[in-house]
Amino acid sequence: YSSASVVTDVLMKKYVDAMPLYRQEQMWKRMGVELKRGTMANWVIQVADLYLRPFWKRIRSELLTQRTIHADDTVMQVHKEQGRPDTAESRMWVYASAKRGDIQLRCFEYRESRSGKWAKAFLEGFKGVLITDGYSGCDQVQQAKHVGPWAHMRRKWLEAIPEGADAKTCKAAQGYEFCNQLFELERQFEELTAEERLKQRKERSGPVLEAYWSWLNTIPRPTGKLKDAVTYAQNQKVHLCAFLEHGEIEISNNQVENAIRPFTVDRKGWLFAGPPQGAQARAIIYSLMETAKANNLRLD
Question: Which of 40, 73, 89, 145 is deepest in the core (most CB within 10 A)?
Answer without folding.
Answer: 73
